[in-house]
Structures are given as C-alpha cells and as structure tokens.
Design a protein that fits this description.
heterodimer; A: alpha/beta; five-stranded parallel beta sheet; 9 helices; 5 strands; about 60% helix; B: alpha+beta; five-stranded antiparallel beta sheet; five-stranded mixed beta sheet; about 20% helix
Chain lengths: ~200, ~1100
C-alpha cells in the first residue's frame, strides 16, 4: 500500500496543519514532502517524481484549483487529493472534473485520507507502468521504414496482401516481405497483437 | 369580408363559338400555346393564341357597354362584396330588402327580420319582438307612411310608423277577421294615395284601402297560381300572370295583353318602370306598357329562367332575379349580362335586387347570402390568373391608340381596345421580361427600360439598345419640352437629344447616388431627384436645390411643375412638398394627406391632382393643395381610392412614368396587380352624406351599499352596467355615480362602411370636434354631474360630411355631496377647522422643544443598540471566515492526535515526536480559543469605553478575524502598516466594527472580479496634522457617481442582500470619535474608504 519509493506531497498554507497531516501520513508509512505555498511547490517540484499530491483548496495567492490547472498545463499527471475547510459543491465538481482523486473536508479522518492517498498512489503507479510499456512499443515502431509504415497502416485496416499490393502499386510478394519485417520489428506475434499495439500508439 | 371578384361575363361555350369567327386565318395555330413557341423576330407584336382568346373575351365583355370605359372594359361595372354567415350575416337566405328613412337597411330572412348598419346586423324575431307573427320573413314592403309590411310564414303584419327601430313597437297583425286570405305575399304595389295592392303566391289579390283589407274578385288567369301586382301612372291596378295580363277597371279585370298560350308559369313578372308605366316580362320578351298600352318590346333570347322578382334601378337597368338562373341584367341599350355562382353570386337562386340611397345594388339569394354590387369608379385592367402580367411597373398611352405597359413579369405589353399583346424586346436571355419603364416620345419613338438596359425604336423598326445606359436598372424615362429624352439608369443619367446620346456625370456636377426621377419646371429647367439630393440642370450644370435651412431634400420620388414656377415633389416618407422660389411647404399626414409616400402626381386637367402611393391613389383639388401649402387651409379634404373602389391593388410602384393621361383625358395607373384606369370626366363622388344614428348609451354605476345588501344584485359585480337603447325616453338622466359613459352610434353609409370617419364632441366637456377615426363608440370616464349634449358627425369614404350629424342630450345627476347646498356649509366648516389646527400646531411646537432633550438621550441609546445589532449581523457575513479559521486548528489537532495514536502502536516509541505532537495540539487549541474570544469581544454588548489604543493593533486583530474570508474569496491582501504605534483614544470594539465593515464591503465589491484582480490594500499612516488615517483600498466596481452623495445615508446599499445600515453606523461611530469617514473612487478602478482620527491627546473623551 505504501511502497517506499512513492512520496506524498503536501501543500497547505497553515504550518501547523501541514505538520499534523505530514505526521499522520508518516505514521502510516508514507514518505512526505511539505510545501507552505503552491508557488513553493511549483518552484521545487520534480515533475517525474512518483507519488501523489494532497492539496488545500483555499490558500492565499494561488489556490488549489489554480495549481491543479497549472500542473495539467505543464503536463504533470500526478493524481491530486483535495482538502478543504468548507466543501462547497461547485468547487468540488470543478476539481473532480479536472481529474482530482478525491475531495475531502477538513478536519479529515485518517482512514478517509489514507484511502484517498492510497488510491491516488495506485493510479500513479498504473499510469507510470502504462507509460513505460507504451514507450517500449514506440521504440520498436520507430525502427520501421516509411514503406513498412505504409504497409502497416494498410494491414491493420484489414486489407489483404493482394489489395495492399494494388494500392501501393507493387506485387503481392513484396508486400509479404514487408509484412514479415513489420511483424519482426514490432515483435508482434499475430495480426491481432499488431492491431492492438498500433491502437495503443494511436491512442497516445 | 370584402371579396372582389373578377367577373367574366361570357360563358365558355359562347366564347368558343365566337372564337372561330374572330380567329384570323393568316395566323398559324402553332403559335398556341404561348409558352411553346415565342416569336424571336425581336420586334413586332406577337399575337399568341391565349392572348387572342382573351381578346375575344374582352370584345364580348365590351358588348355590355356604357359610356366611360366602353372600349377598355376588362372586368365588370361592379365591385361585388359578399356577406354570408361567415361575415356575420344571420342567415344565408335573404328574401326582401327595404331602406327606412333613418338610413337603416332591413331585410328578411327565415330567422327573423334583420337590421343592417353596414357593419353590424341586428336580428328582430319573436323572442325579442312579440308583435311579429313568425320568424320566417318572406316579403317586406315600406309604404309611403314609413309603415313596414312584413309577410311571414305565419301571417301578415304591419309595423307602425315612427317606431321603426324600437323593440317596443306597435304591431298590427292581419287575420281572417281583418280580411286576410292567402298564404304569402308575392308583391306589394302602392298608389300615390297610399292604397296598396297585395298579391299572394296562391293567387289571391287584395287591396288595402281606408285602413282595411279587401279581397278583389278572382282574375281570369290560371287558378291557384300567383300574380305579379302593379300600379300604373293613372293609379290603376295591374296583374301579370302566364294566362292573364290586365288591369282593374273599377269593377272587373280587363285583359290588356294576351300571353302566348304556350308560356310556362315561371318566366313571368312585372315591375314598376321609371318614368311611369310597367315592365312586364313574358317568357323571353320584356314589354314596357304605358298609358295602358304596350310601348316597347325587347326580346331576351338568352333568358331561360323562372322569376322571383324584377326591378329597375336608377340607371334604368332592369334586373331579373331568377330562382333557377341567377341574376340577369338588361340595359336600356338592350345588352344583357348574367351573374351566377361562377362570377360572384353565392347561389343561383336569387330573391331580389334592391338599390339603396347611395345607388349600391343589393342582391339577396336563397342560401347564398347577400351581395353588394357597387358601381366601379376605377376600372381594373389587370388580367385574371393564370395570365402572368400582374405587376405593372409603368404605363404610357400609345400614340396609335391603346396603352403601353411595362410589367416586371412579362416585359412590354400593349393594351389596345380589344386585345392585350406582348411586344418582344431583346433581353439578356432570349427576351426582356423585367420591364421597368416605358415611354413614347412626341417624335414617335418608343422607349423601354428593363432591369438591365434601355431600348428604343421608331415605328415598327427593330429595337436599338442605348449603350450608355446598359448594365443598370432603368427606373425613369422622361421627355422634356425640348423633346430631349432623359434616362435614369442606376447611378447614371443619360440624355438623348435628337439622335445624340450623352451621359451626364461628375463633369456636369452630378453627385453620386441612385438617380430617381425627372421633372421640368415652367422655365424649362429639368429637375432630377437623386437618393439624397434634388438637382436642377441649369446651364449645362447640375445645381442642388436645398431647403431654406440648407438641408438637402431626401427621397423625392416625383415632380409636378406649376405654371407659376412652383414645383410639387412627392417624397417617400413625408408626403408632399411644394417648392416655390426657394421656400418649401409640406403637406403631410397632419394636414390631412392620408398617405406618407407620394410616388407620382398627375393633373387630370379638371382641377384635380391624382397622387399614387403604396396605399392607394389620392385625389385632391389643386386649389386645396395650394391653400394647405399656403397655410390658409388647415386640412385637406381628399379621397383615397383603393381596392374598395376597384383598384386591383392599393400599392402603386415607384419609378417613372407610373401614371399617364391619354388623349381622351383618361388616367392610367400602374399598380402591383396590373394597370387601372379612371375617367376623371365621369368620376363621381359618393354624394349622399351618411345618415347618423345614436344607437345606445351605456353607463356603469357604482353599486351602493344599500343595493349590494338587497337581493337586486344577483351577479355580485362591483359595478352595474345599464344600457339605454334608441329610441330614447327624454330627457335621459343618468343617476348619481354614473361612470364610464359609452355612447354607440353608426353612420349608415353602405358604399364603404369601413372607410367612414367620425368626429365627436361632448358639449360640457369640449367645444371642438375630436377625431374618432372609424370608431363607433365614444367613451367618457368620470363625468362630473351636469348637463351634456353629445354630438357626432360622419364622413363617407369620399370625405363628404354629414354636417348636421346626430346629437343626444343627457344629464348626470349629482350625489348630495356634489351639490352646492352641501358644499358651502362644508367649506365653512373646513375653514374653522383649519384655524383650530394652526393653534394646535403652535402649542405642539413648545411641547416638542421640551421633549427634544429627552429625545436625544434616547437616540444615543438607540444608536448604540443599533451598532451592536449591526455587529451581530456582521457575524453572519463572517461565518465563512470563521469556519476556515476554526477548521485549520481543528484539522491540525485531529491529524496530530490520530498520528499520535498510531505512533503509540509503533514498536519503538519516539518520545520526542509525541512531545512535539502534544505541544502542537495545545498551541492549536489556544489558537482556536483566541478566535472565539475575539468574536465574543466583538459581539459583546457593553458601555462605550474610550481608552488609549494602537490603531495598528486594532487593524491586526480585525484582519485576523477576517483572514479566512479573504482567503476563501481568493483575495490577495496587502497590509501597509505604519512602522510606529499609532496612538488614539477610542472604543476598541467600535473601531474594529468600522474597520471590519470597510473590509467586508471591499471584499463584496470585488466578488465579481477575476481572481487576479481581487486585491485589497489596508494601510495605516499618520496625517500631516498628526492625525491617524486608516485606509481600505479595493479594486471593485467603485461607487456609482449618482450614489456618491448618498452612500452614508441609511438604507442605501449596492448589495442585493444588504440592509444599507453598515456605512451609516460606521460614520456615526467615527463621528462620535471626533473623526471623519471618507469615500473616494480610485483613479484606476475601485474605491477607497478611510477614516481619520485625531491623535489621542486632542481627542475629546
């Protein structure tokens, strides 16, 4: 539940609240890093660090929702758990729509906090894993020649070799060769897998 | 309601028979139909087949002819309007009609007797008229003594004179004891001495002499079959039947004419003839008898019907109403015309034709309603659908006879006396169809403009294109006195002198803008109207004509020059302008011109101007127009001709020429639905002024208590409406409290009741006539007690007033308190009361001064209470802040406590950690407690205590209270506190309250700002004179300039939820501290509030 290499980043403008929350999370075994203001967080934060963010909604200057927006702009996919002193519905809806994991009301019960943080960390882990896989596929696909990419596109659209040959103005035999090389380079064991791999790339 | 019918007089088979005769053998049949093959010769008259068909129809129509429009008759002499149940007619079967001397038309139906005032029908039947023997009215007759004879299916009745339109009339019913025999009266005939001859449908003949009915001996005709009665110029009774035509010779019936023994029963009738004698119809022969002898005999070969009735109208046409063959008219010249369901009648069974005083003819049918045949004054030259040439843009008389017409759907047309022919003009595609303008100049050249180019030809030569004017809409063609032809084509102006074409432009001083129309003044100078200017072409240059005040003349649509140098101009939206030596006079709606736009003006040579517009054609005398323009006449009396007079459409196009006068003096007009023609020489005004009747006076009276308590008011309505109907009992007295008096009246003009205008005047209220337009009700509210005379007068469609009008005197009675004998003592009482009041006021003033001191004490207490209450109220506004402020320590405490519990469960106990936790918990708890303490201090109610304090402290403490609110509202706070303590003497709580109020206001003012614009600055500083100033600066909406003066007044608030007390109380607090509370708008948005206090040693304690 709390792998040692994940960190919970805490942002709250009230130092005593920050201390208390940090202690609570540490008592459950998480590593925590605290920031006294959103600006502080933006300045010091490592975008690739694994973990999740626990964020107070109302802070002077930059508020929590604004920080969420800025992180999204920067392409930081870190899951966020919001804390608020007064859980008004419009704010929570906005936060959840923007991808927040949970929206908790202060004072927060420990199990609620742990559950939300646990889920956020898990989401982060899955996301990272998926990204690693996609990157691997991308690497393999990068080795394809332009001609092989053309053949690949037609193969995954369900065309027969004969049709592909006609479309590309060549003979079926050449297509077979290209096709075999595509399978080989991408490491796909079957046409179905090739389609799946291509689909994942296109999704990204 | 009005349904104008295009009437085509000739039945199809007659048309086809004659077609062959008229058809010229030289013309190939393949020309037919029109669309199949079009002549491409470029010039010449195309005689398409359908046009010839039409021409035949026109020629046939022309057979039925009379003076004015003889050669151009394209439709009926009459405009036919319909009244059926849908139009309010009580019954579609109308049986007979009379017009009483008071002007009402009365007709019989099978559901009662109906009175008609042109708009409204009033039914008299057995339910409201007990004297009537039955509801089925078969025949009506109004005798010389104004007695109405009514033959009903339940007997004969007579309504006595002087009670014609009253419900409580004297009715006399005839029974067998009175000598009445027979079933229903077929005819009434009256001698000059008032004796009547009545004939019945079942063959009885009765005389009404010396107030008695007496049956005459049976004539020797076919028994059981009814006769047509009659009386000749010598007072002799006549009877007409298929077996007997003869007269009563004192003792016996003597046969005069011997009808053909083969004659059937049906085609027989007689009617009184104008100028004496009788018309007698025997089958297919119409015989006139006079002095007891036959004087003329006319054959009616076409006539094949059975007859209900026959009459001769004032134009000496004989109308035969047939029960199975429609309506048949025989003119004195012997031409015939028949109307049936195909050309205007609702049903072919016609009962009667009746001519009213305005010479409208009314035809009643059995089941097909009532028709009004109104003689036309304007002749409609449009052709009925499906022929396409409906939109006439321009008309011009052709030198060889007939009229040219430019149509925007079929190009150029020539209306000759008996045909309508299309003239082919080359166009951008095939041939020109969008005709805009046509003109034949004095040298015989024909000019024609369409939406693209302008063409001309001489005689029958091919058309030539005016090159300079191509590519633009030709809106005007004009020939001046020198024979130059002017062409307006879009922005261009081209003039043709002889055979030379010249385009006039900027070199001649022509401004840009669309060219509209041309005119020429008496000095021979050509005028041109452009969109925004009127120009004169003087000495080869255009010079602008402006109003005396230098304003340009906009939107002039036409010119009409006068011999004295004056120029009339029709405008698009202001009516008519007269320009005379630089001075302009306007004749608009206010001066009685019934239209706003004047598209063309033409002089008929008989002293009238005819002006076209988009709402009809206005006819006014030239003299009157000048008088109105000169200011010597206030209002123009003119006629507006529209579809009610036979115009095919009231909308006349703009452009030039859109109307023209031909050699015979006839006027031609282009309209949106074809051309129309008027002959001013025979044009007559409706010369019968409308009769006026006041029909009803109604008033509402307030129900008094005694009435509402009595059983007299079953409906429970607050007011009682009382109606008095004509004839009125005189004098009319309306009881006290009568309100909302309504008087209903009607002008009995039947030519065009919709266009009747009324004027009303209530003597006792106003002395001048008020325009009531077409309203038939005058309403007066809250009339004071007194005597009144109501007057009404009316003008018919041609503006002919019934100057006498009608009047009705009535009195509104007074309540006792509205009378002088009540009011004078009351006035005296009032004066003495006033004196007493003055004395009382003086005494009260002294007492008030004593009370004043006590009062001030109370006010101070009240102010303190109020200031406390406002503080408590502010607590509500602070709740968001408090939640945040308390939540933070509580969150910290809870997190710490939960963490501590978990650490206790750990294997190794970290004492330092636990100590830190407990320390934090204690601190946070204190923090929460502090917040609550501050709050309580704020809302505590206590005596005001002035004590030395540091303003910076007050500010800091207040900011702590409100910090949460500032954070949750996303406002960035800047505090600029003076570095040294700022000592003043004051009440801490009250100063906090002021400060809190200013901050909360500032926060509210910025609620709608974008978050980056929510900036709040709090500043404390020392002023020049060692005073202390605290300032709150926001970036909100600022103070509206109109409220700047009032913001410190109580109950003034810019917030929807605010009470408007905060600033008022703040001000009173600051003033109690000897300071000032100031407000100002910042130069870069938002407002600043500051309060200045004196340093504490100067402070009043």
């Amino acid at each position: 539940m709390s792998p040692a290499d994940t960190t919970v980043f805490l942002v709250d403008d009230d130092p005593s609240v920050l201390r208390g929350l940090s202690r609570l999370l540490r008592s459950a075994g998480w590593r925590t890093v605290v920031y006294q203001s959103p600006q502080d967080f933006i300045d010091r934060f490592d975008i690739d660090a694994p973990g999740c963010l626990v964020l107070d909604v109302s802070m002077p200057g930059l508020d929590g929702l604004e920080l969420q927006r800025r992180l999204a702009e920067k392409g930081c996919p870190m899951p966020i758990v919001f804390l608020t002193g007064h859980g008004d519905i419009p704010t929570s809806v906005r936060a959840m729509k923007a991808g927040a994991i949970d929206f908790l009301t202060k004072p927060v019960r420990d199990e609620d906090l742990f559950r939300a943080v646990g889920q956020a960390v898990e989401n982060d882990r899955i996301r990272r894993q998926e990204r690693a896989e996609t990157e691997a596929i991308e690497e393999r696909f990068a080795t394809l020649t332009p001609r092989e990419r053309e053949v690949l596109a037609l193969v995954v659209s369900g065309k027969l070799n004969k049709q592909i040959a006609a479309e590309l103005g060549t003979v079926e035999k050449t297509i077979k060769v290209h096709r075999a090389r595509v399978m080989e380079k991408t490491g796909a064991q079957s046409l179905a897998e090739l389609v799946r791999l291509t689909g994942r790339l296109q999704r990204l | 309601m009005i349904w104008v019918v295009f009437i085509w007089p000739v039945v199809a088979n007659a048309c086809l028979t004659l077609l062959a005769v008229v058809w010229r053998p030289g013309c190939p049949v393949s020309d037919f139909p029109f669309a199949a093959k079009r002549a491409r010769a470029g010039a010449g008259v195309c005689r398409a087949g359908w046009l010839r068909t039409l021409a035949v129809i026109l020629a046939l129509a022309a057979l039925d002819s009379r003076a004015a429009a003889s050669t151009y008759r394209t439709d009926s002499d009459y405009l036919i309007d319909t009244w059926e149940v849908e139009e309010g007619l009580p019954d579609n079967s109308t049986t007979a009609m009379v017009q009483t001397s008071d002007g009402y038309l009365w007709f019989g139906t099978f559901n009662g007797l109906v009175r008609f005032d042109g708009i409204k029908f009033t039914v008299f039947n057995r339910s409201n008229t007990p004297g009537l023997p039955g509801d089925g009215i078969v025949n009506l007759y109004l005798d010389r003594q104004e007695r109405l004879w009514v033959s009903t299916d339940a007997g004969l009745a007579l309504r006595q004179a002087n009670s014609v339109h009253a419900t409580e009339t004297r009715w006399r019913t005839f029974t067998a004891q009175d000598g009445w025999v027979g079933n229903l009266v077929r005819t009434f005939s009256e001698r000059a001495n008032g004796d009547l001859l009545l004939t019945t449908f079942d063959g009885h003949v009765l005389a009404f002499e010396n107030d008695r009915l007496l049956e005459l001996p049976q004539p020797p005709g076919e028994p059981g079959h009814g006769y047509f009665g009659g009386v000749d110029e010598n007072g002799k009774w006549w009877l007409t039947q298929n077996r007997f035509v003869g007269r009563w010779e004192g003792q016996q019936w003597v046969s005069v004419l011997a009808p053909n023994p083969a004659l059937g029963r049906s085609g027989v009738a007689s009617a009184p003839a104008r100028g004496g004698g009788l018309w007698i119809l025997l089958g297919k022969e119409l015989i006139r008898v006079r002095e007891g002898r036959e004087v003329s005999r006319m054959a009616l070969p076409q006539y094949r019907g059975g007859v209900w009735s026959m009459m001769e109208d004032s134009r000496t046409n004989v109308w035969i109403s047939s029960y199975d063959w429609g309506l048949f008219r025989v003119t004195p010249e012997g031409s015939f015309r028949r109307w049936t369901t195909t050309n205007g009648l609702g049903y072919h069974a016609t009962r009667f034709v009746y001519e009213d005083r305005e010479r409208n003819l009314w035809a009643g049918t059995s089941g097909g309603g009532l028709r009004r045949f109104k003689p036309r004054r304007v002749f409609n030259m449009s052709l009925p659908s499906p022929l396409p040439e409906r939109v006439a843009r321009s008309v011009w008389p052709a030198s060889g006879g007939g009229v040219w017409m430019a149509s925007s759907e079929v190009g150029l047309l020539h209306h000759s006396r008996s045909e309508v022919a299309r003239v082919m003009v080359p166009g951008p595609r095939d041939e020109s169809i969008y005709g805009m303008s046509v003109l034949e100049d004095r040298s015989g050249r024909l000019w024609y403009g369409d939406t693209d180019s302008c063409w001309w030809r001489r005689g029958r030569q091919p058309f030539e294109k005016v090159k300079l004017a191509s590519g633009a809409n030709v809106s005007a063609l004009f020939e001046d006195s020198q024979g130059r032809v002017w062409i307006a084509a879009g922005q261009r102006v081209v003039v043709c002198e002889g055979n030379e074409f010249r385009e006039l432009g900027a070199a001649e001083g022509l401004p840009p803008g669309r060219a509209g129309c041309f005119g020429e003044d008496s000095a021979g100078v050509v005028w041109l109207a452009k969109e925004h200017a009127v120009l004169r072409f003087d000495k080869e240059r255009f010079v602008e004509v402006r109003a005396a005040d230098g304003q340009p003349l906009h939107e002039v649509l036409c010119f009409k020059a006068e011999q004295d140098g004056a120029m009339w101009m029709g405008t698009r939206d202001r009516g008519l302008l007269r320009w005379r030596s630089g001075r302009l006079n306007l004749i608009g709606r206010a001066a009685g011109l019934p239209v706003q736009s004047v598209h063309a003006i033409i002089d008929d040579g008989l002293g009238h101007f005819w002006m076209t517009s988009n709402r009809g054609i206005v006819r006014a005398t030239r003299k009157q127009l000048h008088a109105v323009a000169d200011g010597s006449l206030a209002r123009l009396n003119c006629q507006l001709l529209d579809v009610n007079d036979g115009l095919p459409s009231a909308a006349c196009p703009t452009g030039q020429p859109t109307c023209a006068r031909d050699q015979e003096g006839r006027l031609w007009f282009a309209t949106q639905k074809g051309a129309a023609m008027v002959d001013p020489a025979t044009f007559s005004l409706h010369s019968v002024p409308p009769a006026l009747q006041i029909e009803q006076i109604a008033y509402q009276r307030l129900r008094t208590d005694s009435q509402s308590r009595s059983s007299y008011s079953p409906d429970g309505a607050p007011d009682l409406e009382v109606r008095l109907r004509a004839p009125f009992a005189r004098p009319i007295e309306l009881p006290p409290g009568s309100r909302s008096v309504e008087i209903e009246y009607a002008a009995l003009s039947y030519s065009c009741p919709e266009k009747v205008q009324y004027q009303v005047k209530l003597e006792g209220v106003n002395h001048t006539w008020e325009d009531a337009k077409g309203l038939r009700t005058a309403r007066y509210c809250e009339l004071a007690p007194g005597e009144y005379v109501f007057h009404v007068r009316a003008a018919n469609e041609d503006g002919l007033w019934n100057e006498g009008g009608a009047s009705l005197a009535f009195t509104v009675q007074a309540f006792y308190w509205q009378t002088w004998w009540f009011r004078v003592p009351l006035g005296l009482l009032g004066v003495s009361g006033l004196a007493g009041a003055v004395w009382a006021v003086m005494r009260g003033k002294l007492r008030r001064q004593e009370e004043h001191l006590a009062h001030e004490r109370e006010i101070r207490q009240a102010r303190e209470q109020l200031s406390h209450l406002t503080r408590v109220a502010m607590l509500g506004e602070l709740s968001g802040s408090l939640a945040h402020e308390l939540n933070q320590p509580l969150t910290a405490i809870l997190s710490n406590a939960q963490a501590a519990l978990r650490f206790l469960n750990a294997e190794i106990l970290d004492r330092d950690e636990l100590r830190d936790i407990l320390k934090d918990i204690a601190e946070d708890d204190q923090r929460a407690g502090e917040i609550i303490r501050r709050l309580r201090a704020l809302v505590k109610r206590g005596e005001v205590q002035f004590q030395p304090l540091d303003v910076n402290d007050v500010v800091g403490e207040t900011l702590r209270l409100v910090r949460g609110d500032i954070v949750t509202r996303n406002i960035s706070l800047v505090t600029e506190l003076h570095a040294e303590p700022l000592r003043v003497k004051g009440d801490r709580v009250q100063l906090q309250q002021v400060f809190l109020n200013l901050i909360l206001n500032a926060c509210d003012a910025m609620a709608n700002n974008a978050s980056e614009n929510r900036k709040l600055t709090v500043r404390t500083e020392r002023t020049d004179n060692r005073g202390v100033q605290m300032t709150v600066v926001d970036f909100g909406h600022g103070i509206p300039s109109d409220q700047m003066e009032r913001i410190f007044d109580p109950f003034v608030s810019s917030k929807s939820s605010g009470l408007g007390l905060g600033l008022a109380i703040s001000r009173s607090i600051v003033e109690a501290h000897g300071g000032k509370l100031l407000a100002a708008n910042n130069p870069h948005g938002g407002a600043s509030f500051s309060f200045v206090l004196l340093p504490h040693n100067d402070n009043p304690a």
